[in-house]
């Protein structure tokens, strides 16, 4: 009897039996979605995903005697023809090339006869005779039947052309991709006895009484009690923090679903929200907590807080997963088989994604939400881990208006059908309920969350820690600088809308003492150093003047007695005021809102400008009733913003792609950040910088290198090809398949003078440089 293999030999010359691989992937894929309606279909996908490897040409391929083969389409075709499993077929087809299209005419192209004539990726089927492949599958002792239930039954129509249906396909796809990766990895890490599977990650819901969720909750409560015992907070603030905590503990006893958490800045939302999540996971036997934050700067702070609290739980308890550049449609590639090629593929997948197998995940909204709309195996691999979880969205007011409806539809479906809970937390809760009728067109549940704290209006009224003063006249940078140098205000924070404005104000303040700057032009290590100095001076009562962009507003814990804020959207102004008298001291804080008198754009983009205009119109309309401590004013602002911005009319190309059930197009069009970003390593710390340069020359771009480079990296919108900045950047090469290959996401600053490690950080070159030699 002929023996068929899935993968070539590992370091111990053990070859991977195809029968064993298909059986293991089927079992693992089913386990990833156990109890879900797609469980049987996931098992089928695992069983048929590599059906084409029973072809003679593929077996020759493992010996280096063939190439350019498609070994996946045959299984996809059989899944439809005999299994009636459309979602499984799409997952099988996509596990190498990415999810494609659910359109009936596209699925018909899986027919081997069609692929023999015209293969979309220019490949050749490893075997076109489906009956022969099915016979060999049977001779290997494997069989299948039509799965029940299935995600889709019968011809596809408008009812499937929605966010929720496509998300279910991604969950099934995720289960297959992760199962395939895990089993393949176990083979190549194997020894003389066979495969060596990696150790499964920890889960919060251990079956024994002494579960991780229970232990972590006890540890967190001790930390919160110790923090409450410190002398800094006012009695009122301390009472409100306790009230918020008790609300979270009480509401955590509810069943899974969608929740909002609305509470004033500085009231302890971050820790109270985590308390809710741990208690809620304990009550509902959930497996993990996923914290979703809008900015990398918040990740730095949140991760440090969490790691300090749970230091005793080991390194595997918390996983940070930052978004990487380049999400979008998966590029077609040939079957990367053979020992060396397969190992390189595994390393590449490790480099680009994690499968979120940890009790606490901290990630960005870009990483989380774009993954939910991706078609790439590397991005979708973790999606099945989002089920049976508590998902915490911090500072949810940063969710882009044009993507609000599809984002709400996705997380609503997760909360309604995936045994998960979603919490939207902020001091300025957007009126997303206003979009319910639009959201329900994309998912069955719509958007009707339960509020965790019903007394948040009273909380905000009690915490009137700041007076708002709206300066009537525009201020030049010189006028503003004179205000900031006022000796009567030795501790002052000024937040502007653009990095360019921060630099211009810095120049106007030339010669001022005790001056600091904070923006995303500073790398994380630089920002941490600046914040440490600022916090220490604030604590010691020393003069401190900080010029910052919006990066300080969300989640950054500083407390100034005086804040100046350039005119901005309402939520940004309230967030800025949250950095003023944060600890509720007896002397009321002062927040001044001004409009810069300067040339050029006042705002980062048109959406930001639109929101600022809505703020101005509402302020003019309400007059003295424009009370930023009144939740009804905040709700009125968001309702007006959604009326003006009309999110249901935005992103029309995205909705069209959803209607066409096109996964590649949806992936390309769902972007929280419209422009791609590049990562630039800067010489803030010369020793680390030089070590990184040397390591890049020796080994190229690796996961370990990226981890070490993170503290010295800044992100920049990808410049146009003709931009002179490219002349000042050195690309980090990627070593693959025995040689260096080009990558376009990571670069090193070529000239150390392009980074000011004293104040302003990265200075983008405006002209070509003359190099000596």
Q: How many E strands?
A: 25
In the predicted model, the low-confidence regions spanning at least 5 consecutive residues are 323-353
Query: Which structural class should the secondary elements be placed in?
Result: alpha/beta
Rounded to an integer, what's the Rg over CA atoms? 28 Å
Q: Order of strands across the widest beta sheet?
A: 7-8-6-9-10-5-11
Beta-sheet strand percentage? Answer: 5-15%
Compute the number of helices: 29
Shape: globular
Cα separation of the termini: 68 Å
> Helix amount, in percent?
40-55%
Most strands sheet: 7 strands, parallel
Secondary-structure topology with pairs:
Layout: E1 5-7, E2 16-17, H1 18-32, H2 39-48, H3 56-61, E3 69-70, H4 73-81, H5 86-97, H6 104-108, H7 112-117, E4 124-125, H8 130-139, H9 163-188, H10 212-228, H11 235-251, E5 258-262, H12 269-284, E6 288-293, H13 296-309, E7 318-321, H14 339-352, E8 360-364, H15 365-372, H16 377-380, E9 389-394, H17 404-417, E10 421-426, H18 436-439, E11 450-451, H19 456-462, E12 466-470, H20 477-484, E13 491-495, H21 499-508, E14 515-518, H22 524-540, E15 544-548, E16 562-566, H23 570-577, E17 589-594, H24 606-622, H25 631-645, H26 652-659, H27 663-669, E18 677-681, H28 686-699, H29 703-709, E19 713-717, E20 729-731, E21 734-736, E22 739-741, E23 746-749, E24 755-756, E25 761-762
Parallel strand pairs: 3-4, 5-10, 5-11, 6-8, 6-9, 7-8, 9-10, 12-17, 13-15, 13-16, 14-15, 16-17, 18-23
Antiparallel strand pairs: 1-2, 18-19, 20-23, 21-22, 24-25
């Amino acid at each position: 009897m002929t023996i068929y293999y899935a993968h070539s030999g590992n370091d111990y010359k053990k070859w991977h039996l195809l029968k064993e691989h298909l059986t293991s992937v089927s079992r693992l894929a089913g386990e990833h979605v156990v109890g879900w309606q797609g469980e049987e279909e996931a098992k089928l996908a695992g069983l048929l995903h590599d059906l084409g490897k029973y072809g003679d040409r593929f077996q020759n391929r493992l010996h280096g005697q063939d190439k350019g083969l498609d070994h996946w389409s045959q299984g996809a075709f059989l899944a439809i023809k005999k299994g009636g499993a459309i979602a499984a077929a799409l997952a099988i087809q996509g596990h190498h090339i990415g999810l494609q299209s659910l359109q009936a005419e596209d699925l018909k192209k899986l027919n081997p006869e069609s692929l023999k004539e015209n293969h979309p990726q220019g490949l050749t089927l490893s075997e076109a005779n489906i009956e022969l492949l099915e016979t060999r599958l049977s001779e290997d002792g494997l069989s299948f039947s039509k799965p029940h239930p299935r995600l889709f039954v019968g011809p596809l129509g408008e009812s499937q052309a929605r966010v929720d249906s496509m998300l279910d396909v991604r969950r099934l796809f995720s289960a297959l991709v992760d199962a395939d990766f895990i089993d393949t990895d176990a083979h190549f890490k194997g020894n003389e006895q066979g495969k060596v599977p990696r150790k499964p990650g920890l889960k919060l819901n251990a079956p024994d009484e002494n579960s991780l969720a229970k232990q972590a909750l006890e540890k967190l409560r001790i930390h919160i009690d110790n923090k409450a015992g410190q002398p800094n907070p006012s009695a009122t603030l301390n009472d409100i923090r306790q009230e918020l905590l008790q609300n979270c503990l009480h509401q955590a006893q509810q069943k899974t679903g969608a929740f909002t958490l609305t509470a004033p800045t500085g009231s302890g939302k971050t820790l109270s929200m985590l308390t809710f999540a741990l208690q809620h996971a304990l009550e509902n036997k959930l497996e993990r907590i996923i914290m979703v934050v809008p900015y990398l700067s918040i990740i730095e702070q949140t991760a440090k807080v969490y790691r300090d609290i749970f230091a005793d739980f080991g390194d595997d308890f918390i996983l940070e997963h930052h978004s990487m550049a380049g999400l979008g449609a998966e590029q077609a590639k040939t079957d990367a088989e053979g020992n060396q090629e397969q190992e390189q593929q595994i390393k590449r997948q490790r480099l680009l994604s994690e499968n979120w197998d940890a009790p606490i995940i901290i990630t960005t909204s870009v990483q989380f939400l774009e993954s939910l709309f991706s078609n790439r195996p590397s991005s979708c691999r973790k999606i099945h881990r989002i089920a049976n979880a508590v998902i915490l969205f911090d500072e949810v007011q940063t969710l882009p208006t044009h993507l609000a409806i599809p984002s709400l539809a996705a997380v609503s479906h997760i909360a309604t059908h995936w045994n998960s809970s979603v919490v939207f937390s902020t001091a300025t809760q957007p009126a997303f309920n206003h979009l319910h009728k639009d959201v329900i067109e994309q998912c069955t549940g719509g958007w009707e969350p339960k509020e965790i704290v019903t007394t948040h209006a009273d909380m905000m009224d009690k915490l009137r820690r700041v007076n708002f003063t709206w300066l009537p006249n525009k201020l030049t940078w010189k006028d503003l600088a004179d205000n900031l140098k006022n000796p009567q205000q030795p501790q002052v924070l000024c937040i502007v809308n653009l990095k360019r404005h921060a630099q211009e104000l810095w120049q106007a303040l030339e010669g001022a003492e005790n001056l600091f700057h904070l923006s995303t032009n500073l790398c994380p290590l630089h920002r941490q150093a600046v914040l440490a100095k600022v916090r220490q001076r604030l604590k010691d009562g020393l003069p401190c003047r900080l010029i910052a962009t919006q990066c300080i507003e969300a989640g950054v814990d500083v407390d100034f007695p005086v804040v100046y804020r350039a005119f901005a959207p309402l939520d940004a102004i309230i967030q800025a005021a949250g950095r003023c008298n944060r600890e509720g001291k007896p002397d009321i804080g002062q927040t001044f809102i001004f409009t810069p008198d300067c040339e050029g754009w006042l705002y980062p983009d048109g959406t930001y400008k639109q929101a600022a205009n809505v703020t101005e119109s509402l302020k003019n309309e309400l007059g003295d009733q424009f009370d930023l401590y009144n939740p009804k004013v905040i709700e009125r602002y968001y309702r007006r913003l959604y009326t003006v911005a009309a999110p249901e009319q935005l992103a029309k190309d995205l909705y069209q792609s959803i209607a066409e059930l096109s996964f590649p197009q949806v992936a390309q069009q769902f972007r929280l950040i419209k422009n791609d970003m590049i990562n630039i390593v800067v010489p803030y710390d010369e020793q680390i910088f030089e070590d990184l340069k040397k390591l890049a020359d020796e080994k190229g771009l690796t996961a370990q290198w990226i981890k070490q480079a993170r503290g010295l990296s800044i992100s920049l919108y990808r410049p146009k090809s003709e931009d002179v900045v490219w002349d000042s950047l050195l690309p980090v090469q990627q070593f693959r398949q025995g040689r260096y290959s080009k990558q376009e996401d990571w670069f090193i600053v070529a000239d150390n003078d392009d980074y000011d490690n004293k104040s302003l950080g990265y200075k983008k070159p405006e002209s070509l440089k003359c190099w000596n030699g």
